[in-house]
Amino acid sequence: MSDDVHEEIENTDEDNYGRLAWFLTGAIIGATVAILYAPRSGKDTRKYISGVTQQSRDAVTDTSKDIVDAGKEMFERGRKLVEDAADLFDRGKKLVKG
User: What is the longest distance spanned by two Cα atoms in the chain?
Assistant: First the structure.
């Protein structure tokens, strides 16, 4: 693959992570505003906040697992690129010497 293709793939991955982060931030802000304006009693609101907090915690856990998996995948792709580059370097060195 050419350098342009690798750069484009990396930029796409970064854009996706940025969008995900902004989405989660917006969801948290939206939930906070909804809670503040909710016409519920204190007990009901606390119960609701507890449920939303657990859902948010689960979402963050799932997202972080996805990010870790994507990071591992990117690491493996980078390692493969380095191995390919080293192989090309060795072949080029042999051609120059041979």
Answer: 84
If you average pLDDT over residues 36-59, what whole number do you get? 81
* Tokens standing for residue 41: 């009693």
Radius of gyration of the chain (CA): 23
pTM over 0.70: no
Structure tokens at 33: 């505003």
| 81 Cβ contact list (under 8 Å, min separation 6) | 6
Closest among 17, 10, 49, 51 to 33, alpha carbons compared: 49
Burial (CB count within 10 angstroms: exposed 0-12, middle 13-18, buried 19+), residue 88: exposed
Cα 32 from Cα 95, distance rounded (Å)? 65
